[in-house]
Write a structure and sequence with these properties.
The complex is a heterotrimer of chains A (264), B (274) and C (276).
Chain A (H helix, E strand, L loop, with lengths): L1 H18 L9 E2 L4 E2 L2 H32 L2 H16 L2 H19 L8 H26 L2 H9 L4 H30 L2 H6 L20 H8 L8 H31 L1
Antiparallel strand pairs in A: 1-2
Chain B lengths: L1 H14 L6 E7 L4 H14 L3 E8 L1 H10 L4 E4 L5 H7 L3 E16 H5 L4 E3 H9 L16 E5 L4 H11 L11 E3 L2 H10 L3 E6 L7 E8 L2 E3 L3 H5 L6 E9 L4 H11 L1 H10 L2 E2 L2
Parallel strand pairs in B: 1-2, 1-3, 5-9, 6-7, 6-8
Antiparallel strand pairs in B: 3-11, 4-8, 4-9, 4-11, 4-12, 9-10
Chain C lengths: L1 H26 L5 H5 L19 H31 L3 H16 L2 H15 L6 H25 L3 H10 L3 H30 L2 H4 L21 H9 L5 H34 L1
The chains are: A mainly alpha (264), B alpha/beta (274), C mainly alpha (276).
C-alpha cells in the first residue's frame, strides 16, 4: 500500500512541483501546450458519480425494501441471485451495452448531436452500482430483528410509519456504507466510462450541462496511458490524476468503515 | 490442496515454451494496423518461427514505444516531430510502406443533403467553432457534430497541420473526441450531421468523403489524387525500425515492401509505394 | 407508499435479466462452437483475409491464463496474511489490517494498472507481457482474497482451536489439521469470486499485458497475450463491420458465461459450507 503511494507520489512529483496544487483547478488540458488542468476531468467524474447516485440509490433502496418487506421470502433469494449476477458483469460488457443500446437511445430521445455524454456515463455507472447498494441495504434491513417490526405494529403504526421511523433509521448505517462503497466503484470505473463519455476535455458549458460529451479522470488515464512517454511531464500529469483517484477512493473507503465501526 | 496442484499444472503449461519462436511486437497507428496485421499473418505462413504481435493505440503510442524500446516496430501515420526525432537520436529508420489520404468525412445524411465539397478555410472554421450549422454551408438546418481526434493520433496531426495550420492546433469547435479510426467511423455512421477525419480506407456507405476545394478545384480523397499529389491532405504511412532490430524484423519490413506486402496495402485501400 | 416503492424498485428487479438476455440475443448471429475453439490471429476485423475467422480461443485462453497466474500469485500471499491476522497480530494490528484491506479494495483498478505500467513494463523492462498482467491482477484481487480468507478463518469455532491446543498440536499442526480443513470452503469461495473478478478487469491489462492480434498461445510468461475483455473493447468500437460487432457480443456472452460459472460455483460452495 505504501509502495503504491510512494510510486504515485514520486512519479507525479514533477507535475506538482511544476504546477503547484492550484492546477487542480486549472481548466485546460492540452498536453502539447503543456497545459495540464485537471478541472474538466474532476468535474466530469463528480457529475458522473452524482448522476449514478441519484439513479441508483432510490432504485436500489426501493428494491431492497420491496424484497425484504413486501415480497415473499422466495423472491428475496432470487433477487439476490439476480443482483449478484449483475454485480459480476464485467465493466466492458456494460460499456458494450451502453455504447450500442444507451447511446442511440439518448441521441434519439434528447435530440442530441451524439449520445456520448456525462448522462450516459452516469446511467451506466448506476447500473453497475445498483447491485452493491441493493445487496447492502437488503442485508441491513434483514439484520433488524423481527421483534422491532412486531413492536411497531403493536404500537399501531401503519406500514409506512413503521418503515420510516423504525426500520430505516436502524438500517441506515448499513445502507450508508453500501452507498459509499457504490460511490467508490463509480469513481474508479474505467472501461465503460471510457467508451461512452466522449473524452472532450472541456468544462461543460454551462456547468450543469450533462448532455454534452465530457471527460472523467478514469477515462483520461485510460485513453492517454499508452502514449505518454515514460518520464515526461504528460506522464506525471496522468500520475497526478491517478493520485487524485486513489486518495479520493481511500477517503471514501475510510468513511464507509468508520461509520460501520461506530455502529458495531 | 487440490487447487494448489491445479494451479501448479497451469503454471507448468505456461512456463514451457510452445515453440522456440522469436517474437516481435508492432505498436502504433490504427491506420497502419490493418496492413501490419494481415502482413503479419501472411508472413507467419511462410516463416512460422517468427510471431508478430500487433497492437493499436495511435501513432503517438507507436513512436513512444520505439523511443522507450518496448516495441520492435513502430507504426505511425505521420512524420515524427522534432522533439521525437531528438529522442530517437538517429537510431531509427523511418520507412514509408504506403500512402493514403486523410479524408474529411461527413455523415451520409449530410452528403445527401448536398454538401459534396468544402474548402480548407470552411473546414478550419468548422473546427474552430466559427461555423456551427450545416445550413451555413448550404445543407440542412442541423448543428454540426465536429469530431476531433485524440491529440496524439497521426491522423489528427496530419489533418491539423494541413487544415488548421499546425499539427498541435486546438480545435475549439470540437464536440467530441474519438480515438481510433474505428471509433470515429462508428460515430460518423451513427450520426446524421457529423464531420470528421478518417483515412480513405475507412470510407463506406454511411461515411462519405467530401472533396476538398483547392484553388477552386474540387479534389476527391481517392488514391489517384494521392498518387498525382493533388489531394492536399495526403501522407505517408511509416514503419519505424530501430537500427538494433533483429534480422528477422528487417526481413519482415522487406516483406512489407515486397510485391506481396504491397498487394496487401492495395487491398486495404492505400496507395502502394511503387 | 408501497406502490411508489414498487415502481422505483422495478428497474432493479428487471434489469439483471434484461441485460443478460440482451447480450445473449445480440450474440446469437455469431455464436457457434467454431467461434469458441477456433483461433485467429488477425483479430478478424479485416474480413478479407483468408482465415479471418471466427476464433476466440486465443482470447479465451489469454484471459484464463492471466487469471490463473493472478490467483497463483495472490493465493499464497492472501493465505499468509490471513494466518498472520489469526495467529500473530494484536487486536490493534488486526483492525489496522482490515482497514487497510478495505481501503485497498476501493482503489480503482486502473491506478494499479498505471503503477504496473511504470514498475513492471518500464522500470523492470518486462515489456508488455503476461507476467505483468498476472502481477497487476494479483494485486487487484489480493485485498479481496485476503479479507475473505480472514473471514473464513474467523468463522471457525473457537472450541476447535482450543481443543487442538489442548491436544498438544503445534501451530503448524493446528493450521494444517484443524483450520484448513474447516475453512477451505470459505477460502475456495473467495478464490472463485476473485477469479471472476480477475476475468472482468480490463483497464489494468489493456496497456500492460495485451495486444490486439498476433498471439495464439504465449511463448513464455514474458510475452503478451490477447484477452476476451480487451477484445470486446476493441470490437466495441467497430462501426461498419456488423460481423465484428456480433463477435463482440459473442465474446461478451462467453465472458459472462465464465464469470457466471465461477460466481455460481461460489454460491454453491457457500451453501454447502453453511449446511456443513
Amino acid at each position: 500500500m505504501f509502495v503504491l503511494f510512494w510510486f504515485l507520489g514520486d512519479a507525479s512529483w514533477p507535475y506538482w512541483q511544476h504546477f503547484g496544487i492550484s492546477s487542480v483547478w486549472a481548466a485546460e488540458w492540452y498536453p502539447y501546450e503543456s497545459l495540464y488542468g485537471l478541472l474538466p476531468a474532476i468535474i466530469g467524474t463528480t457529475w458522473a458519480m452524482m448522476i449514478a447516485m441519484m439513479i441508483a440509490v432510490p432504485c436500489g433502496l426501493a428494491a431492497a425494501i420491496v424484497s425484504s418487506e413486501i415480497l415473499p421470502v422466495i423472491w428475496q433469494g432470487w433477487m439476490r441471485v439476480g443482483m449478484e449476477l449483475l454485480a459480476g458483469i464485467p465493466s466492458v460488457v456494460y460499456g458494450l451495452i451502453g455504447l450500442w443500446v444507451l447511446l442511440p437511445w439518448l441521441q434519439n430521445t434528447f435530440d442530441l448531436l451524439t449520445g456520448h455524454s456525462l448522462l450516459a456515463a452516469g446511467m451506466i455507472l448506476s447500473l453497475m452500482i445498483l447491485p452493491t447498494i441493493m445487496v447492502m441495504s437488503q442485508d441491513a434491513l434483514r439484520m433488524i430483528p423481527t421483534e422491532q417490526r412486531e413492536a411497531a405494529m403493536s404500537m399501531g403504526m401503519n406500514w409506512n410509519q413503521r418503515l420510516m421511523r423504525v426500520l430505516l433509521p436502524q438500517a441506515w448505517p448499513g445502507i450508508r456504507s453500501g452507498i459509499l462503497l457504490g460511490l467508490g466503484r463509480a469513481l474508479g470505473e474505467t472501461m465503460a466510462v471510457m467508451l461512452v463519455v466522449g473524452s472532450l476535455d472541456r468544462v461543460p458549458q454551462p456547468i450543469y450541462n450533462i448532455l454534452e460529451p465530457a471527460q472523467t479522470l478514469t477515462s483520461r488515464i485510460g485513453r492517454e496511458m499508452g502514449e505518454a512517454v515514460f518520464g515526461s511531464m504528460h506522464f506525471s500529469a496522468l500520475m497526478a490524476c491517478g493520485l487524485v483517484l486513489a486518495v479520493t477512493a481511500i477517503c471514501l473507503s475510510l468513511l464507509a468503515q468508520r461509520k460501520l465501526s461506530v455502529v458495531l | 490442496m487440490i487447487k494448489r496442484s491445479l494451479f501448479l499444472m497451469m503454471v507448468v503449461c505456461v512456463g514451457i515454451p510452445a515453440q522456440a519462436s522469436a517474437r516481435i511486437s508492432a505498436v502504433g497507428s490504427t491506420t497502419v494496423l490493418p496492413v501490419m496485421s494481415q502482413a503479419a499473418e501472411a508472413y507467419h505462413q511462410t516463416h512460422p518461427d517468427l510471431t508478430i504481435t500487433v497492437s493499436g493505440g495511435g501513432s503517438g503510442v507507436g513512436i513512444a514505444a520505439i523511443i522507450q524500446g518496448t516495441a520492435q516496430l513502430g507504426m505511425a501515420s505521420r512524420e515524427t516531430s522534432p522533439e521525437e526525432q531528438a529522442k530517437l537520436d538517429g537510431k531509427v529508420d523511418n520507412i514509408i510502406v504506403a500512402s493514403d489520404a486523410v479524408a474529411v468525412v461527413v455523415s451520409k445524411a449530410v452528403y445527401e443533403s448536398g454538401i459534396h465539397q468544402l474548402s480548407m478555410a470552411q473546414i478550419a472554421d468548422i473546427y474552430h467553432g466559427k461555423i456551427k450549422n450545416w445550413q451555413q454551408l448550404g445543407g440542412l438546418d442541423k448543428r454540426i457534430l465536429v469530431i476531433d481526434k485524440e491529440a496524439s493520433r497521426g491522423t489528427r496531426h496530419v489533418f491539423a497541420k494541413a487544415v488548421l495550420g499546425s499539427s498541435h492546433a486546438r480545435a475549439e469547435g470540437a464536440s467530441i473526441i474519438s480515438g481510433s479510426n474505428n471509433e470515429e467511423q462508428m460515430i460518423v455512421s451513427r450520426s446524421d450531421n457529423a464531420i470528421g477525419m478518417l483515412s480513405n480506407a475507412w470510407l463506406n456507405d454511411k461515411v462519405r468523403g467530401v472533396d476538398v476545394l483547392v484553388d477552386g478545384k474540387a479534389i476527391a480523397p481517392t488514391i489517384e489524387h494521392v498518387r498525382d499529389g493533388s489531394y492536399p491532405i495526403a501522407r505517408g504511412l511509416h514503419v519505424l525500425v530501430p537500427h538494433t532490430a533483429s534480422a528477422a524484423t528487417k526481413d519482415f519490413v522487406q516483406f512489407l515492401l515486397s510485391k506481396q506486402g504491397q498487394d496487401i496495402v492495395k487491398k486495404v485501400g492505400y496507395l502502394p509505394v511503387r | 407508499m408501497k406502490v411508489f416503492l414498487s415502481l422505483l424498485a422495478l428497474p432493479a428487479l428487471l434489469l439483471p435479466l434484461a441485460c443478460f438476455l440482451y447480450v445473449i440475443i445480440q450474440a446469437l448471429p455469431a455464436l457457434n462452437w467454431e467461434l469458441i475453439v477456433g483461433s485467429d490471429t488477425t483479430g478478424n476485423l479485416f474480413g478479407d483475409a483468408p482465415n479471418a475467422g471466427h476464433g476466440l480461443w486465443s482470447q479465451i485462453s489469454g484471459s484464463l491464463l492471466m487469471m490463473a497466474l493472478a490467483c497463483l500469485l495472490a493465493a499464497p500471499i492472501a493465505l499468509s496474511i490471513a494466518l498472520f491476522h489469526a495467529l500473530w497480530a494484536s487486536a490493534r494490528q488486526q483492525r489496522l489490517l482490515m482497514m487497510l484491506l478495505q481501503a485497498l479494495q476501493g482503489i480503482p483498478p486502473i491506478v494499479y494498472g498505471l503503477c504496473g505500467l511504470i514498475v513492471l513494463v518500464h522500470l523492470l523492462h518486462w515489456g508488455i507481457c503476461l507476467a505483468a498482467g498476472g502481477v497487476i491482477l494479483a494485486v487487484v484481487i489480493l485485498p479481496l482474497l485476503s479479507s475473505n480468507a480472514i473471514h473464513a478463518l474467523q468463522r471457525i469455532p473457537v472450541e476447535q482451536t482450543e481443543s487442538a491446543k489442548a491436544l498438544g498440536l503445534t501451530s503448524a499442526g493446528i493450521i494444517g489439521r484443524v483450520w484448513l480443513p474447516a475453512a477451505w470452503p470459505g477460502m475456495l469461495t473467495g478464490l472463485l469470486l476473485a477469479m471472476a473478478r480477475a476475468l472482468s478487469e480490463t483497464a489494468p491489462v489493456l496497456f500492460t499485458a495485451t495486444v490486439f492480434s498476433g498471439v495464439t498461445w504465449p511463448d513464455s510468461i514474458f510475452s503478451p497475450v490477447t484477452s476476451l475483455q480487451t477484445h470486446i473493447f476493441y470490437l466495441a468500437q467497430e462501426g461498419s463491420n456488423q460481423h465484428a460487432v456480433d463477435v463482440a457480443w459473442a465474446s461478451a456472452t462467453i465472458l459472462l458465461g465464465l464469470v457466471v460459472c465461477f460466481s455460481l460455483s461460489a454460491r454453491f460452495l457457500r451453501r454447502y459450507e453453511e449446511s456443513v
